Amino acid sequence: MSDFFKSAFGIISGGGPGGAENDFVGQMVELGNQKLRVKRVIAEGGFAFVYIAQDTTSGKDFALKRLLANDEEKNKAVLEEIRFMKKLTGHSNIVQFIAAASIGKEESGHGQAEYLLLMELCGGGQLVDIINRRPGPLPCDQVLLSFYQTCRAVQHMHRQNPPIVHRDLKVENLLLSSQGSIKLCDFGSATTKTHYPDSGWSAIQRSLVEDEITRNTTPMYRSPEMLDLYMNYPICESLDIWALGCVLYLLCFNVHPFEDSAKLRIINGNYTIPDTDREYTVFHDLIRSLLQVNPNDRPNITDVLDRLQEVAAARNINLKTPLNITEGISATPFSDNSDSPVRQAPPPQPQPSAYNEGQTTAGSIFSSLKGGAGSLMKNIKDASAKVMETVSATVNKADLDLSYITSRVIVMSFPSEGVESAFKNHIDEVKNYLDYKHKSSYAVYNISQKSYRTIKFENRVSECGWTARKAPTLANLFAICKNMHLWLRQNPHNICVVHCLDGKASSATVIGAFLVFCRLFESSQQALHLFSSKRCQPGLSPAQRRYIGYISEMVADTPYLPHSRPVMIKNLIMSPVPLFNKMR
């Protein structure tokens, strides 16, 4: 059981940042349901290292990014990066996010918080390295395919609500997958913030924005509006369009249009397209439109894609054709076996056991559990759960007494149908919230003896009817745990909502029993620590704690089922022996 709780960061918690990247190689880490062996470093920067990590079960290779954060601002930036990756993942031209974990600076041993991000491995490496290793320039058709796929990734970002601006688009952040497609990576500078300077902006206000831009962008890719805020141009998605102009120019001519990062040249759009060029003439006008000084004159990303489609039609190019730009180049740097392309596969799913399906590892059910369990699991926190579309913010808006113990298990107080001041949740507000966040995917477990119209929750309410402050029958508690487990296994989107009158003691009994039922914790104390950190101190009675312990023993290595058969006590051992004759 201790292996199940092994920290993904335990192996590096004692080392400092300077050199720990080498100590990390060869170690085993666990993220979610995957156990990984760290193979080697493939990239590094001032606060980040990227490794190849191999899944010990499937043998698949992944990219494992380790980031260090020495202050609150950097912590927020990393969490923002994870949130954006989770939101954008699924697009064929964006690196796929798989899992994340974090450790606080208090536990790291060197005063810096650390994060691990598990992503798909793009076996082709960086596009810029491929271009530099090629014996000649990229053919025009390959430039078209590469740039088109890059623009599709940017379009996916700009279509979000609100639009996500990458802010650090450059050839170095374009990777090549083993299947021959471009993958956009590194969302550490991405933002949804936009600025619209005007004559009312103060010098301090402009200076603050400029400082923030400087920290998050690459000099030679900065657009004019980023370098001179006194031009009062909008700072929004258009800056990505300018960066795309720099990328296209580099793909065509193998040199950056503003190689020296000269501020005046960028502000004035002072670059030249080679007069002798005949290979890439179809892109000349597009480059000029992308590198317009005034962002209002640049096309949006959809217009850019339309133009590329017109070029493809004129040249009879199928834009879905895989890239073929590695001919004549030695084996790719990110693959140990160049003849075996790296294929992305979903994480291995836990297999059900013969014991009433109650002993499966709970990774598929509790994707966000590893975190928040206080001292037991302080050293590993599922950062992907932390940065989900923050449910707590939505809950606060509705003023509901509702807590996510994990991303798929909710505890709340009683949903009242009247105006009873004793109950904070009104049933209609709860219904609206659940329908909005978890439409047709929730099951409600009413642990109280008080009832309401179950039709409000689509008749998916289990009436358990336990007496307050008392433990239920063992068979009843076991049956609820099994029912919850089966419901969550049916669909990865399903959630369980548990409530008693106040969402405390009785609810905590169910949640604690369920956590040990799934073998995520060994004892009631460990399970209740998570409940306390996510909701409140439940104030369980000794009997309620014992019953959680009973469930834990029932699903141990030698499991057994509850029964109601009569039991005859044959002997009773008391130690020490009571002194019956002693006078009080």
CATH topology of the largest domain: Transferase(Phosphotransferase), domain 1
The share of residues in extended strands comes to 5-15%
Please tell me the CATH architecture of the largest domain by its name: Orthogonal Bundle
Using the CA coordinates, give the radius of gyration: 29 Å
Relative helix content: 25-40%
Q: Characterize the largest beta sheet: strand count, sense, and whether it forms a barrel.
A: 6 strands, antiparallel
CATH class of the largest domain reads Mainly Alpha
Query: How many structural domains can be distinguished in the coordinates?
Result: 3
Give the helix tally: 18
Count the beta strands.
16
CATH homologous superfamily of the largest domain, by name?
Transferase(Phosphotransferase) domain 1
Q: What's the N-to-C terminus distance?
A: 48 Å
Helix/strand structural class: alpha/beta
What is the overall shape? elongated
**Mean pLDDT rating:** 79
